Structure formats: structure tokens, C-alpha cells
């Protein structure tokens, strides 16, 4: 067992003092950890003076986020809480070294707990020996028949066999009450620069004209992979993308439902503070196949922040989103589109790719939904990445916007 005793920054390093309980007794050790792991642990730990904190000896590599993760458990007299944090490879190495010192005791406990050791047969009293000889074959046959019946039943139901495999989950589960009736049909496409012409796909029969109240469809979109080398992107000719900033809000679900009804998807760039207040909206957008990205923690002008402030700002927003989605956040849109080299470098450190826009209807200051719609009518939508916001008049204008773009026979895109 590894217990966290203290965590503090020093002049040139970060120190974590731990207590190690093993077969030989109890010893104290000081680990020198990196800044990344220190900030991750410190951000979730909070005050722990009245708690005992136990570190997990089972860190794990997450191939989807391409990060190491570990966990700690805060305990007091009445409750315990397990918290997960990202960590460095060096921290993992140190934990595994400590684990080796605890393994003899742990292994003994594990074997004793999960692998029953059969007791040696003891001689039975003579008066019961004959009865045991008679009944033992019958009992063995019954047990064998029961096992064969169970195996046959399991073979008839593959889902039972499949569910037997356990997986460790480092993220908060998505609310099971959120309906997930549609799975987006996503086609991956290579991203091209604004100057490049789109390579047309094979001719398809024209889609039927949408009615005023379209039936719900599975979204069909082209997934564009951002290469992370530039700040501002535009799409090839023949493509269009919608994106929504400043959520989640009371309008998120309604926007998602409209997109689903027309069979398309869009990027949602959520503010961390809003996500903390509306976790169900984050879960709803994610469950319905909408790619979710970070729009900072507090919608401040991050070019005025220090590197440390931007590190924590991005980290907090990503953490609250990932806890509600169970998947990594990879896209970042800076508030006001304000970005400099320092902020861009921090985004790269956190595996985030910057996404800006090249069409702005300025719906945030529009007085009516008609003003927003007119912007689309008077601009060339082909190759456009539209910046929209979660506002009542935008929701009202959205069906007309989508119908107009569909009449132009444009392919809708999302960014990953």
C-alpha cells in the first residue's frame, strides 16, 4: 500500500512524500515528480488534511488519449472517493518500482482471496464412510450435469460470454438516462487547404427535397482531421461545416435535435464553467455523435494570460468535458479567436488542435433570426466554416439555414 503523506513544490522540483506499507513494515520515501504530474494531482486533490490518501499501484496507459493515467483514493471516517489523474511515464516508473516492494504481501493476500486452496482430505468417522462412498458418485454426476447445462446455456447466448470481460474505466460514466437512438455514419476524409479543390466522389442520385418537418435520420458527415500546423482552417469547395460556441446551455439539446432531424452533425465548442453547470447537455451532445471541443474554462482572452494560467485554464476545461463524455477532447477554439505562439504551444502540449472559422454571421448581436438567415443567403457557403452561438434566435434560424445549405448540395463536415 502506498499512502500520500505530502505534496509540495520545491525550488527546482516537485516532491511527493509517500508511506510504503510492505511485508517488512512501514517506510517513508520521497519521490521527485515532474510539473505535469504535480499539477494533475494537485488539481484534483484539494484539501486533504482530514483525509488519508492512498495511491494506486496500478497505473495504466490509455491508447485512445495517448496518456498514462493513475488514481488516488481520499478516505475519512465516513466516506471514500476515488479520483483519476493523468501522469508522466517517469511517475509511472517510480510507482512500479514501489509496487515491487509491496508485491510479496499483496500477492499473498490476492491468492488467499481469489484462489481457494483445497484442504487435504481428512479421514471420516467409520460410521459415515460407507454413506459417503454411496452418495459421492451421485453428487459428482449432478455437479457435472449442472456444469454442462450452464455451458450449453452460455453458448446459446453470446452476449453473456462477451459481458464477462471486465475493463477498467478511468472516466465518469455517461448518464444512462440519455437516449442514444442514433449512431452517426462518419466517413473520414483527408483535410485539404483552402486553395485546393475538393476531389469529387462518385456521382450519387440527388437526395429528396426536405419537407418542412423532416423525419429523423442518422447523421452522415465527412470527418476532417486537423493537422495542427495552422490556426485558421477553411474547407475545400463543396464542403460546409457548422460550429456552435459558448455552450453548453439550455439550448444545446434543441440544437442537437434539429441537427439530428436533418441528418447532419456539427462541432460544439464548450466552455468549462458552463459544462460544470450543465453536464447533462455535454453528455447529450456526445451521446448523439456531436464532436465536442474546448472553448477554454472561462471565455477569457487567453493571450493576456501567463503560460501557467493558460495551462491550468485548458486543463480544467478538458478535464470536466472528458469526465462527462468518456472520450478525449482534441479540438480547441480560443475565445474571440485570439491566439499567440505561447497559447498555441500550450495547446500542442495538451494534444489539442486549434480550430477557427472563416464565416461569421455575428448571430451574437443579431436582433432577429432573419438577419442571421440573410447572411447565409448573401455569402458563398462552399468551403465555409460557420461560427454560431447557442442563442434563441440562432435556434429559430437553424432549420432554414440547414435547408438552404442542403439545397446547395454541399457536404457537411465535422473536425476531429
From TrEMBL:
Coiled coil: none annotated. Residues 238-413 form the NodB homology domain. Residues 195-219 are annotated as: Disordered. It holds the Pfam family Polysacc_deac_1. This is NodB homology domain-containing protein. It comes from Paenibacillus helianthi.
Amino acid at each position: 500500500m502506498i499512502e500520500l503523506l505530502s505534496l509540495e513544490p520545491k525550488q527546482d522540483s516537485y516532491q511527493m512524500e509517500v508511506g510504503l506499507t510492505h511485508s517488512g513494515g512501514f517506510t517513508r520515501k520521497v519521490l521527485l515528480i515532474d510539473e505535469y504530474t504535480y499539477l494533475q494531482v494537485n488539481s484534483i486533490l484539494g484539501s486533504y488534511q482530514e483525509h488519508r490518501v492512498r495511491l494506486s499501484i496500478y497505473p495504466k496507459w490509455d491508447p485512445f488519449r495517448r496518456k498514462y493515467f493513475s488514481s488516488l483514493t481520499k478516505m475519512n471516517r465516513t466516506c471514500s472517493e476515488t479520483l483519476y489523474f493523468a501522469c508522466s511515464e517517469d511517475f509511472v516508473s517510480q510507482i512500479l518500482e514501489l509496487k515491487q516492494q509491496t508485491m510479496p504481501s499483496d500477492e499473498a493476500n490476492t491468492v488467499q482471496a481469489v484462489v481457494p486452496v483445497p484442504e487435504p482430505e481428512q479421514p471420516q468417522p467409520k460410521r459415515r464412510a460407507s454413506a459417503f462412498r454411496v452418495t459421492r458418485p451421485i453428487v459428482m454426476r449432478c455437479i457435472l450435469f449442472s456444469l454442462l447445462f450452464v455451458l450449453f446455456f452460455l453458448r446459446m447466448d453470446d452476449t453473456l460470454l462477451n459481458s464477462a470481460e471486465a475493463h477498467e474505466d478511468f472516466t465518469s460514466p455517461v448518464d444512462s438516462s440519455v437516449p442514444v437512438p442514433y449512431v452517426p455514419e462518419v466517413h473520414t476524409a483527408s483535410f485539404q487547404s483552402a486553395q485546393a479543390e475538393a476531389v469529387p466522389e462518385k456521382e450519387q442520385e440527388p437526395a429528396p427535397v426536405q419537407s418542412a418537418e423532416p423525419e429523423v435520420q442518422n447523421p452522415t458527415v465527412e470527418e476532417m482531421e486537423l493537422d495542427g500546423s495552422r490556426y485558421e482552417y477553411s474547407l475545400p469547395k463543396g464542403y460546409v461545416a457548422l460550429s456552435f460556441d459558448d455552450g453548453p446551455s439550455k439550448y444545446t439539446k434543441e440544437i442537437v435535435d434539429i441537427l439530428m432531424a436533418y441528418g447532419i452533425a456539427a462541432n460544439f465548442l464548450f466552455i468549462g464553467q458552463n459544462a460544470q453547470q450543465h453536464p447533462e447537455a455535454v453528455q447529450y451532445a456526445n451521446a448523439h455523435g456531436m464532436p465536442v471541443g474546448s472553448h477554454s474554462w472561462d471565455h477569457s482572452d487567453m493571450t493576456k494570460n501567463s503560460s501557467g494560467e493558460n495551462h491550468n485554464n485548458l486543463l480544467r476545461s478538458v478535464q470536466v468535458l472528458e469526465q462527462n463524455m468518456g472520450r478525449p477532447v482534441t479540438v480547441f477554439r480560443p475565445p474571440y479567436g485570439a491566439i499567440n505562439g505561447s497559447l498555441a504551444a500550450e495547446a500542442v502540449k495538451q494534444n489539442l488542435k486549434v480550430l477557427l472559422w472563416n464565416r461569421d454571421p455575428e448571430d451574437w448581436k443579431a436582433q432577429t433570426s432573419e438577419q442571421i438567415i440573410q447572411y447565409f443567403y448573401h455569402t458563398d457557403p462552399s468551403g465555409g466554416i460557420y461560427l454560431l452561438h447557442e442563442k434563441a434566435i440562432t435556434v429559430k434560424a437553424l432549420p432554414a439555414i440547414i435547408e438552404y445549405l442542403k439545397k446547395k448540395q454541399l457536404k457537411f463536415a465535422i473536425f476531429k
